[in-house]
Amino acid sequence: MKKLLSLFIVALTALTLHAQTVAVLGFESDNFCIEDKTGTMSDLLTDELVNISHITVVERKYIDKIKSEMKFQASPYTDPATAKSLGKMIGADCVIIGTADVFNCTLTVTARTIEVETGKILYSTKMTCDTWSEFNQKLPDFARNLVSKIPVPDRFEGTWYGIIENGEYSDEYTITFAKKGKCAIDIVPDGDFDATTISAVGTWSDNDDILRITAKFRTDIARLKNLKWTAVYLLDDSGNMFSMNLPLGEGGKLVRVMFTKQ
């Protein structure tokens, strides 16, 4: 019963994490010179990943707990199939596995990012260092590269509704975010009872908490012809509402816009 309760607590914690979670499963090494340092290397990589805004990193204690409860062997994680299985138990979307070795006094670290759902290797990279100081210098870029191919988070996927008011007008927006950076936008212009909805297909991206949306509309309304938004957004804890400040109108006056998921 105690074992089942522990697994339930770990699973529940994992489920509350962000939709795009990453777990560092550790580095494997057969070289006695560095085998006692692979844990520190994993922790340093985890610390770097925590600073990347569009992912959430699974804490090592939860990973270790699952390993212990399920009696995983000491270092089976270079096998993608095993990494995928462990990643599912942790609740991660992607896992990072790797190896470390020393050749001619040069440390070589190889790592792969694996998508848990498909087992696909999203990214593979290698880093060589002659000193630990060089390892620390190269680690930030190494970490960013490992998560650079992770699919765009699905936190926006779906349909959102909002009204943009700028004193002179009040336009209603319905934006449907789809996969692969595509979106559909419907706008109901304000001030004309006979106005019809204007629609367009555009593109979107979500990087470092900056939302970018672009679309072109066939309309005679000047303010609605070209939609080019690039702004920092704030997503509420429920994931059903986000806001951002957009420069609209003359002088680039900032207008706060709120969108609610439908």
Strand tally = 13
Which descriptor suits the 3D outline?
Answer: elongated
Low-confidence stretches: 1-19
Question: What topology, given as strand order, has the largest sheet?
Answer: 6-7-8-9-10-11-12-13
Helix content: 25-40%
Chain-averaged pLDDT? 82
Strand content: 35-45%
List the secondary-structure elements in sequence, H or E: HEHEHHEEEHEEEEEHEEE
- Largest sheet features: 8 strands, antiparallel, barrel
Structural class: alpha+beta
**Rounded to an integer, what's the Rg over CA atoms?**
23 Å
Count of helical regions = 6
Oligomer: single chain
How widely separated are the two ends? 41 Å
List the topology elements.
Blueprint: H1 2-15, E1 21-28, H2 38-50, E2 56-57, H3 60-70, H4 80-90, E3 94-103, E4 106-115, E5 121-129, H5 132-146, E6 158-165, E7 170-177, E8 182-188, E9 198-207, E10 210-216, H6 222-225, E11 226-235, E12 241-248, E13 253-261
Parallel strand pairs: 1-2, 1-3
Antiparallel strand pairs: 3-4, 4-5, 6-7, 6-13, 7-8, 8-9, 9-10, 10-11, 11-12, 12-13
Structure description:
The protein is α+β, with helices and mostly antiparallel strands. Helix content is 26%, strand content 40%. The chain has six helices and 13 strands. It has helices spanning 2-15, 38-50, 60-70, 80-90, 132-146, 222-225, and strands at residues 21-28, 56-57, 94-103, 106-115, 121-129, 158-165, 170-177, 182-188, 198-207, 210-216, 226-235, 241-248, 253-261. The strands form two sheets. It has an eight-stranded antiparallel β-barrel with strand order 6-7-8-9-10-11-12-13. β4 (106-115) and β5 (121-129) form a beta hairpin. The longest helix has 15 residues, at 132-146. Mean pLDDT is 82; it is low at 1-19.
